[in-house]
From TrEMBL:
Species per Swiss-Prot/TrEMBL record: Ferviditalea candida
Protein name from the UniProt record: Amidohydrolase family protein
Residues in Amidohydrolase-related domain copies: 13-321
PANTHER family assigned to the protein according to its UniProt record, in alphabetical order: BLR3681 PROTEIN (PTHR42889:SF1)
InterPro entries recorded: Amidohydro-rel (IPR006680), Metal_Hydrolase (IPR032466)
Length: 339
């Protein structure tokens, strides 16, 4: 829980975290090393110096480290796992839905463990999606449209099989579709992360919520023009957030454009842990104000009420979380007592 200087409590939901294994022992080929090295470059170049991890720790960290960084140190009340498999690069997968689910069971009410799908898996993948819904009760999926699969280097949400999977999501009550769109990661292809296919998917499936992770950066303008037309498109702020440190003016421009086009009700905080830690991001965000000239041009404001929405209230609305009831449930759990 974040508390302002006046003692006001702000419920924080980190909508984008991961527990990964990028270690050399798990790397299947050179692409596994390229991928985690690119992640580390993002981490190293956009974090304050004192928050940069040693490379060895970054490759593979344990559950205790994640829980400590997010809940004990990082103000976060709840966190949402967004898993990515990358089976073409890693022997046992980069992320692991089963491991995430076990951690969610160990800390009731603290985690939401999302699943994932790859429409190129055909009928077999649809059966797996049913398994995730029935066994793990997932309410959301993370999609990586640039993920490699055999000779394929990506897919679009407009592909016929992707449409079948979205239909299945709707049938199963998996209503939150988080899609990585924008920043490329070596060796994945830039064009396969293009935000354009969100437009048709959002129009075709108005009962699903499409959370565009990383707000399509660097294609922010494309994302904004799509999102302003599609009321079921949201912006996930992972990757945008760390620019608050290294490029504060750029961050201000991003936030003002998002608030101008989408409004404050469709933006979700995400640290992208372990690329970045939530504590320093939230500290800087709470202290941040938009420059006067930017406010004057777009009319955007980062008031306390806006920050409360972005940090937790908007994600709570998407996942059906009653914040007051959740606070009551969590106030005496093992993590609250430890703090």
């Amino acid at each position: 829980m974040y508390r302002t200087k006046n003692g006001e409590e702000i419920f924080v939901i980190d909508s984008h975290i991961a527990l990964w294994d990028g270690s050399p022992e798990n790397q299947l080929n050179v692409h596994g090393a390229q991928f985690i090295n690119c992640f580390y470059d993002y981490h190293k170049n956009l974090s304050p110096e004192e928050w940069v991890w040693p490379k060895e720790k970054y490759l593979k960290y344990d559950e205790e480290t994640l829980v400590h960084d997010i809940f004990n140190k990082g103000y976060v009340d709840m966190a949402i796992f967004q898993p990515v498999y990358l089976k073409e690069f890693y022997k046992n997968g980069f992320g692991d839905v089963e491991k995430n689910s076990r951690l969610a069971q160990k800390y009731p009410g603290r985690f939401i463990s999302n699943g994932t799908f790859d429409p190129r898996a055909g009928e077999r993948g649809l059966e797996y999606l049913e398994y995730l819904a029935e066994e793990h009760g997932i309410k959301g999926v993370k999609l990586y449209t640039a993920e490699w699969n055999g000779n394929s280097k990506g897919y679009k949400l407009t592909d016929p099989w992707a449409q079948k999977y979205l239909e299945k999501c709707e049938q199963l009550g998996i209503i939150n579709i988080h899609v990585h769109k924008g920043p490329t990661i070596t060796p994945l292809n830039r064009d396969a992360f293009d935000v354009a296919d969100i437009d048709d998917a959002a129009s075709s499936f108005p009962n699903l919520n499409f959370i565009v992770e990383h707000v399509g950066l660097p294609r922010l303008e494309d994302f904004c023009w799509i999102a302003t037309q599609e009321a079921n498109v949201y912006g996930g702020l992972a990757v945008a957030m760390p620019f608050i440190h290294s490029r504060p003016r750029y961050f201000a421009e991003i936030m003002s454009e998002l608030i101008y086009w989408l409004g404050a009700d469709r933006l979700l905080f995400g640290s992208d842990y372990a690329i970045w830690e939530p504590k320093w991001l939230i500290d800087k965000f709470m202290d941040f104000e938009l420059p006067e000239d930017i406010q004057k041009e777009t009319g955007a404001e980062l008031t306390l009420e806006v920050k409360k929405k972005i940090l937790g209230e908007n994600a709570a609305a998407l996942y059906g979380i009653d914040i007051e009831k959740q606070k009551e449930m969590l106030k005496n759990d093992q993590l609250a007592v430890a703090n």
